[in-house]
From TrEMBL:
GO terms (BP aspect): transmembrane transport
Membrane topology label: Multi-pass membrane protein
Subcellular location, record wording: Cell membrane
Chain segments annotated as transmembrane: 17-35, 55-79, 100-133, 153-176, 197-218, 224-255, 284-305, 481-503, 534-553, 565-590
Keywords of the record: Cell membrane, Membrane, Transmembrane, Transmembrane helix, Transport
Domain called ABC3 transporter permease C-terminal: residue spans: 61-179
A Pfam cross-reference name: FtsX
Record-given protein name: Antimicrobial peptide ABC transporter permease protein
Similarity comment: family membership: Belongs to the ABC-4 integral membrane protein family.
CC annotations in GO: plasma membrane
Amino acid sequence: MLLKLSLTGLKGRWRDYAVLFSGLTIAAGIFYMFQSMASNDDFLTNNSTVAMTGMIFQLGSVLLAIITLVYILYANSFLMSMRQKDYAMFMMLGAKQRKIALLIFIETFAIGLLATLLGSAIGIGLTSIVSQLLTNRLNIQVTHFSPFSSKALLITLIFFTMLFLLAATINASSIVRKPILSLLKANETPAKSRRKPIMLLLEAIGGILLLAVGYYMMDNVATFALLALVVALITIVLGTYFVFHSVMIFILNLLKRSDSLRLKKLNNFTLSQLSFRIQDYTKMLSMVAMIFALALGALTVGLGFRNEIPKMTEQASTYDLLLNNAQDADQKQVEDLNPTLNVSYQIKEDEDTVYFNQEQFDSEPLNAIYYDTTPQKTAYSGEQLANDEAKMDNLRVLLLPEQREKELAMLPEDQFAGLNHQTSSLQVVQVNDFMTQKDAIKNIVDENVQQNPSLAQDQLAMNQKYDIYTIFNETFSGFEFMGFFLGIAFLTMLASCLMFKILSGAASDVARYDMLNKIGTRMSLLKKSIRREIAVLFLAPGILGAIHVLFGLKMFTGLLSEPYAGIWLPFLIFFVLYFFYYLLTIWLYIDIVLKKKE
């Protein structure tokens, strides 16, 4: 009988549980995907190019696990608060507390286990899609990879099982310890909203000052290093709390003093609704603002890394293509690139020395990179190379491994011609656009390795631009994917938590809207009031979280040359997803408070 009553209660709140279930499913799916990418040993061992990507996804798993823990505990407590009246009624009908605790435990654990299993199944499909996108992004062919990983599945099941066991235990113990009367009246006990104006003003000023300090530290992270991160974390968290605990109330009080505003339609009722519940929402809004900043920041930085790949490749390499022993290369492929620069330097060598024709370098100086505060490109003539060993090292790195160990010498043209050694050539090439021609360049690079087998064992070479591009692409594409999926997971969780918080107070609002309906208020005005109230609760943390991101991007100036480039794209993605949750919340809220009035 008790189980039947419980199922009836779950059916009555299926929308609320559907939101929780979908959030948990997304979290489990993305967690499985991260683990599958990070823990597939055969895949990582046989594809060294993506080894760094595995480490990046492992880091993402840790971050996702932390946020998932907060989400489960927070969101699940809201559902329990909405069902506590049901449990109180069961107790009043004679159900034993031990039975109620067992029932709550089974409900929580069963929902979590089902969400984990479904999420893992979705994660397998998601892993297949992402692996293809990732390998295409890295321009590589991978082996020994399967979307299904028993190790990743086991880790996912163990992690989420432990989380739901913890949540189920907390739910069961918290409900049975409360008196029946407290369970019945919990939602009818409002938070006190009367506070002294002077304290409100001091808190508002303090919150703004704390945020200012945090933003200043993020803007000067290069100067203060670790101290800046610690101070920024503390001040921004506290500043966010005080902004919602004081500034928002202060603004609402000012708006309520304007007769032209508050006496228009249902504005006074809407403002009173916000003022009435704002203190109860302070912790939630603060948490949502911080997670919103983390989510949007992860997505923005992740997509920002994509833009850095060609820039960093360009800064780290002088030539688009390098051919050792170019006399043996297929020059037809080089000509098909339509190069803007195509120069061959003659080389002669003996057992101890590699000789170059100085006149050739005087005619076509060697491109090089020197480091000041930022990488700078320059060019060295043959005379400069001959008189400076440090500058000559820029030529050394372009040679074959066995040549780099020898002495390098620049000789006048007549002396070079007089050497009785076999002549080879070093060919350097530049093209109009490396990124659009990189596939064709890769084919020539592979041919160069085949013509010069010693390059295949040379792990420290990194003299080909394509090799440099591959390393940057591997690392930052991993961050791009991790940031994107972490951002989506975080946004889903924070929007769900905010939705739960708003819906948890809907039951106590039924009487207020019923009263307005009885005195003749039009239904359109009631719905408009609801839309405005919920819009404020969504916009406030969203706007503050976006401001956090705009200042927080300053911390990435050392990694991103243009951290704000293309920022509209992640903001647009977030706006669309966030707006969807706003519309969903309105629909659920109206269904609760106005469903009897249609």
